[in-house]
Amino acid sequence: MNSFVSVLTANLLLNKGPQDFPCSQVLMKLSLAAYFVSGLPGLMITVDFPQAVFAMALDVVVLLVFVYLCLQAFAKSERFVQSVISLASMGTVFQLLVFPLILNFDTSPEVIQQMLGLSILMLLVVSWNLAVFAHLFKESFGVRLPAAIVLTICYILLNLLARQIFFSGLT
Hints:
- The protein is mainly α.
- The chain has one domain (2-166).
- The protein has helices spanning 2-12, 25-43, 49-73, 80-104, 116-141, 145-166.
- The chain is globular and about 50 Å long.
């Protein structure tokens, strides 16, 4: 467990990649379960529990399919388990980081000025999330950073598109 946390931390700091996680089906399933569960509270702010469950299930499916197809396209299919572990683990960490910020976020006109600090903090967390995912895609797929950034944007857009198709209330 200690080595998992140290690899997770190193991934958050962009020092290591998915290849540093153990290749374990059990760890992959646990990471996906943690990702699924950690996403529910943030979704339940705007939708009810059944919709949040379906939205997170869709999120997990999009992650798995996107990683699988990209690894197939780049002939790196042997990296699937470790890539999913790293992406799901990072997703869990960032969902847990952003949840308290979402709870305190208020867009009413009278408090916009007071929300500046919270908005900047949210921007920093989201930017860090994008940098980590681009790093993980770069390492997983064996591509250069610009291609990894494009893949990160594609993943986000596919996720948003899937949510829009299946859950028009979630964007």
